[in-house]
Amino acid sequence: MLEAMELRKVFKGRTAVDDVSLFLDQGESVGLLGPNGAGKSTTISMISSLLTPNSGDVRLNGVSIVSKPQFIRQVLGVVPQEIALYEELSAYENLKFFGSIYRLKGKQLEAKIQELLEMVGLRDRQKELIKTYSGGMKRRINIAAALLHDPQIVIMDEPTVGIDPQSRNHILETVRLLNREKGTTVLYTSHYMEEVEQLCSRVYIMDHGRIIASGTTEELRRILSGEDTLLLKLDKPNKDLANVLRSLAPIRHVEETDNGLKLIIAKHSSLLSQIVQTAESHQVEIINIHVHTPSLEDVFLHLTGRTLRD
Amino acid sequence: MNPIFMAQWMKEKRSPIMILAFCGLSILATLLFGTGSDSKMQIGVFPAEGAGDTAAEEWLDLLNKGDAVEFVMQDELQAHSEVREGRADAALQLMENDYRIIAAIDNPNVQLVEQQVHTVFVEELQLRAAEAYKKDTSAFRTEVETYLKHPPITVQSQTTEGSQLIKYNMSLQLLFTFTLFLVMFTIGFKINSITMEKVSGIWSRVILSPVRKSEMYMGHLMYSAMIGFAQIAAVFLLFRYAFGFNLGDQFGMLLLIAAMYSMTIVALSMLLTGMVRTPEQFNAVFPSVIPIMPLLSGAYMPPGTITNEFLLTISELFPLKHALDAMIDIAIYNAGWPDVFLSVAKLCMIGVICMGIGINLMERRRV
Ligand SMILES: Nc1ncnc2c1ncn2[C@@H]1O[C@H](COP(=O)(O)OP(=O)(O)O)[C@@H](O)[C@H]1O
Ligand SMILES: [Mg+2]
């Protein structure tokens, strides 16, 4: 449906986006994950026709929107990274304005405004000025303002940056509703991998202007060579136990933590009873064992040697 | 109605403080500096060396029969220094049968004084000459006076440019200056909201909507011009009806000049926003550039005060000067369109040029 091909953008000699290709099928929810400065916003601006790429193309149903931007603008809703609202006006007035620029008016506009306010949970506070809102409430209106014209494709640029958990849940719920119940195609940008894992069926991971990995969340996790991480919580530290465990073949790595041990073991090796017995023989009690499946965060760490929040 | 225009208006209604403050400042400044100078013009008079004091007193009585100017006896040195320091427009030296006007500049007030003194002297000297042939001089004077109540011909004095000599109204000039000056701030800050919307992302949102870019600019420009015009009109109306200022008989024409001036200032603000990078920079640069304009073009001083060629050339670039010229001509000298054509043409030309360059700069800066 929507396809970006080999996009490149250079700002004053610095390459912000380099050879980025991605696609969205109808009804899909796709994540674009990467740390700050990776080039996510720049990519999104090019896809939404706000920025002209130095090279490459963006196509909607086969038509290049670089030369025909109005083609995508009709069906697109963009939630910008910044709060793009009139601070001096109320939430209601803002939505009225952003509806009127899409030529909506009268009862139809009014009904849409109330529906969206309900959806983001701010219907009872619609008369208050945006500047009196909390960061999270502003973000929710920022999203609603992009949905007034019922766009088929919604692009969200880090819609949950720096907000309270309640607002965050509201936003995640809104995105899920849009995608699963209304069939809206969603491109969701974030540097929080938990969100992307929850919301998106497919993910592109971006770093330094390039896509470094892509696929379903499952496929991406499999990038991490068949390993599991076990976290053991012990009643007391014991050096000998660590050394004995280190000598067991399927255990690749043993590390002492604050209250126990971290083991990296080959996947599907049934070591648990052996570990418990070894601990008992050293008079150490295992309080609990946690099997940690790798997250996209671990994938990113594996690919770049850095965490997403660096 | 254009939604962009409406959104600006909604914001204004929420916080009308800025425009009210600038209206208030225009009024306050005019009342503070503009009134007082409206009383009769005072001209210092002193007898020339050798001329008798009594002769001077006689001339003084005759001169003070007119009502536009008040002549007062003064010490010679003091009269000279007042003229030199600009506290008086002119001083008058009286001889037995002649006079000299001492002035540092040539402005309409000096011309007015000159004209009045000249008339009094010519009349009186003619009378004295005629008296020489009459026995009963006082009867002759009465006769002449009665005769002159219904003169066979009337003479009207005119300036060299052909306009009638009218007492210059400095407080009106100051009213125009302050109002035109302060409205630049209102308009400039309104135009700056374009850059603010670009930074906040609102501009991009509207770009993505079916609203065309030309409509977006039009909404902002029309709104800024409108609010500026409303500010000028409000101040003028207040002075005309509440403070009883005489703004001349062509109020409609004044308002038209105000409208043209507002549009030119919109264009000038566009040029300045186009030259800076951020709204904060504009807020720093604009208020430091604008006050130079009335200062350099002499808008706070009586006309003719500034004689420096360089300053005169520079002030040709300022919309304020041309609008002020046109307004003064209309309000004080009752000028018609042909008389103010040149000022209006220059005003419009500045507007067109600034707007052209301004929009170009603004659009080019967006990558
Ligand atoms: N308008 C611009 N001018 C110059 N450099 C820019 C501009 N926009 C973004 N950049 C640079 O491009 C890089 C990518 O930025 P961005 O796309 O905003 O990253 P992200 O959204 O992933 O945090 C950054 O290094 C940023 O400084
Ligand atoms: Mg970004």
Automatic annotation (TrEMBL), chain A:
InterPro entries: AAA+_ATPase, ABC_transporter-like_ATP-bd, ABC_transporter-like_CS, DrrA, DrrA1/2-like_C, P-loop_NTPase
Superkingdom as given in the UniProt entry: Bacteria
Molecular function terms, GO-annotated: ATP binding
Membrane topology reported for the UniProt record: Peripheral membrane protein
Keyword Iron attached: no
Xref: PANTHER family: LINEARMYCIN RESISTANCE ATP-BINDING PROTEIN LNRL
Cross-referenced NCBIfam families: drrA
Full protein name: ATP-binding cassette domain-containing protein
Source organism: Paenibacillus mendelii
Automatic annotation (TrEMBL), chain B:
Span of domain ABC-2 type transporter transmembrane: 17-359
InterPro entries, sorted: ABC-2_transporter_component, ABC2_TM
Keywords linked to the UniProt accession: Cell membrane, Membrane, Transmembrane, Transmembrane helix
Keyword Cell membrane belongs to the record: yes
Locations listed in the record: Cell membrane
Chief localization: membrane
Topology relative to the membrane: Multi-pass membrane protein
The keyword Transmembrane helix appears for this protein: yes
Membrane-spanning segments: 170-189, 221-239, 251-272, 340-362
Top-level taxon in the UniProt lineage: Bacteria
Protein name per the record: ABC transporter permease
Organism per entry: Paenibacillus mendelii
